[in-house]
Amino acid sequence: MPSCTSPDQGEDLEACVLRFSDLDLKDTSLSRPNSSLKAELDGSTKKKYSFAKKKAFALFVKTKEVPTRPLGDKEKRWQCCQHLFTDRSSIHRHVATQHADEMYQQTASVLKQLAVTLSMSKSPTAADQQNRVEGHLPHSHDVSAWLPDTSCISANELISGQGSDEGEVLLYYCYCDLEDPHWVCAWQTALCQQLHLTGKVRIAKEGINGTVGGSKLATRLYVEVMLSCPLFKDYLCEDDFKTSKGGACCFPELRVGVFEEIVPMGISPDKTSYKKPGIHLSPSEFHKEVEKFLSQANQEQSDTILLDCRNFYESKIGRFQGCLAPDIRKFSYFPDYVDKNLDVFREKKVLMYCTGGIRCERGSAYLKAKGVCKEVFQLKGGIHKYLEEFPDGFYKGKLFVFDDRYALCYNSDVVSECSYCGAPWDQYKLCSTTQCRQLVLTCPACQGRGFTACCVTCQDKGGRQAPGSTQHSFKEECECTARRPRIPREPMAGVPPCGPCS
User: Are 458 and 431 in contact (CB under 8 A)?
Assistant: First the structure.
C-alpha cells in the first residue's frame, strides 16, 4: 500500500489514508502516547507526532461513515457502538472518549511507519524495493484514486433498481496477503458509499470477504473495480462473484471492518492458514462424487463422508442428501467439533461444502492438519455455484443466506418442518420475543394461534414482558440453546444420513 507522506503534503486529513501494517488491536499494553510513547520517539519522528495522531483519528472516523440513502441528502452520518451520530463533533467526542485505546495503538503504528519510511529513504536498496511496490499502486494516499469514475452516472441511476426484484446481491471472498487491511477498509467504505451499496465487508491480513447489495449497475461497477485492483486482480476472477436477486434493501446498513479472520473460525490464521486447504472440486466434479457416494448400498459403512460445515439452522432448511450436518450454532465451534469427533473422520475421504466456499478454505485446512483423513475435498464456489449448475441436483431445500432474505430458493423441496406442529415449513422468522435473536420455523397456522417465538420458554417470557421493556439479559437464554450440546459427539458405529432428505 502507499507509504506515509509528510505533514505538509495535503491538508485534507480525512482524505489521506496512512498504512497501519503493524497494528494489533488486541495489544492493550500500549501506554498513552502523551507519556512514555512520546518520550521514546527520536527528534525527527517526535515532530510528526501531532500529525500522526490526527491521521489515525481521521481514518478511524472515516470507517464509521454510513451511506446517505435518500436522494439529495448530503449530510454525513456515522455509526459506532450501535449508535447513530448526525454531526461531526458528536462522533469525534465519542471516538475520543470511548475508543482512546484504539487511537493510541493506531497513533503508535503510524509513528512506527513514519520511522520506517525515514530509514528507507536513507537506504538505496530499501528505496528501490519500495519503488517496485509502488509501481503497481497509486502514489496518492487518497482513496479516491481507487474509486470508479461515476461522473457520467447520476445518483438516481445508481440507486434505482435496488429493490429485491431489480437489484442484485454479490457474495465473494478472496484469500490473499494484505499488508494494510485498514487502508483497504477505508477504501471499501468509500467505494460502497459511492455506489450506494449496503452489506458487510470483512477485511484482514489474510484477505477480504464481502456480501453487498445494490442496483445491478452498482454491483457491476463494484466487480470491475475489484477485478482491476492491483491487490486482488491476480487472485479474483469474475466467476468468484456469486450473484442473486436482492439489493440494498437486503441489508439494514453498510458495515465494513477489520478483523483477525475474514470468516470467524476462532483459530488464528497463523496457526491454520488458508494456504493449505483441501482439494477444490468444481460443481460438476463434486456432483459426480456425491452421485458415486449416494449410489453405494450402505452409506453408513462408506469410506466417504459428505460434510456440511455450516451451522445447524442453515442445514436444517437445505442440505445435500446423505450428508453429515453437525449440530453446531457457530462456525467457531467447528474446530472443537472436529477435535471431538476425530474417529468419525479417520481413514475417510471427506467431501466438504458450505454456502460460498469460504468456510471450507480454512475448515478443510484444519481437518487436513489433523492427519486422520485419507483425502479432504471441498466444493469450489460452495452450494451457491453448485445450484447455479444443478438446481435440481442432490442439494435439496433452500440455501440459507445471512441477510434479510434468510434463504434463496432453487427447487421446490421442503426438508424442514414447523417447530410447533411438524408440518412441512422452511421460512424463517425472528423470534417474536424482544431481544431474542433466534430464528424460528413456525407455519401460518401456528402463527395464527400465537406461536411466534423460538420455543415455549421464550414464548412465555415474551408474554410476561411489559410493553416497551428492553430485557437485554436473556438473549439466547431459552430452551432452544439450553437443550443443545455446544459440541455434539457423533455416533461411532458409522455416520447416519442426515434428516428426511436422505
Answer: yes
H helix or E strand, kind and range, residue 407: strand 407-408
List, in sequence order, the alpha helices (H) in 305-449: 312-315, 334-340, 342-345, 358-369, 382-389, 444-448
Q: Which three cell numbers stand for residue 130?
A: 519500495
Confidence (pTM): 0.70
pLDDT tens digit sequence for 294-348 = 999 787 789 999 999 999 999 999 999 999 999 999 999 999 999 999 999 999 9
**What cell numbers appear for 265 in the block?**
473460525
Please calculate the CA angle 162-166-167 and round it to the nearest 5 degrees: 45
Per residue in 96-130, pLDDT tens? 888 887 777 667 766 655 554 444 444 444 334 33
CA contacts within 13 A on the Cβ side of 449: 7
CA angle at residue 362 from 370 to 272, to 5 degrees? 60
Distance CA 38, CA 47 (A): 10
d(CA 330, CA 310) in angstroms, rounded, equals 8
Residues with Cβ within 8 Å of residue 449, at least 6 apart in sequence = none
Q: Kindly state the cell numbers that stand for 282.
A: 468444481
179-205 in b/e form (b: 16+ CB < 10 A) is ebbbbbbbbbbbbbbbbbbbbbbbbbb
In single-letter form, the type of residue at position 25 comes to L
| Sign of the alpha-carbon torsion through 366, 369, 375, 377 | positive
Inter-residue contact 206 to 187 (CB < 8 Å): no
Establish whether 152 is a catalytic residue.
no
CB atoms within 10 A of CB 208: 26
CB neighbours of residue 161 within 10 Å: 17
Which one, of 161, 245, 239, lies nearest residue 195 by Cα? Answer: 161
Cell 461497477, located at residue: 221
Instruction: Give yes or no for a contact between 192 and 186, defined as CB atoms under 8 angstroms apart.
Output: no
Q: Which of 80, 354, 360, 480 is catalytic?
A: 354
The Cα–Cα gap between 150 and 66 comes to 19
Measured distance CA(275)–CA(295) in Å, rounded: 33
Burial class (CB in 10 A: 0-12, 13-18, 19+), 118: middle
* Cβ atoms within 10 Å of 273's Cβ, excluding its own: 16
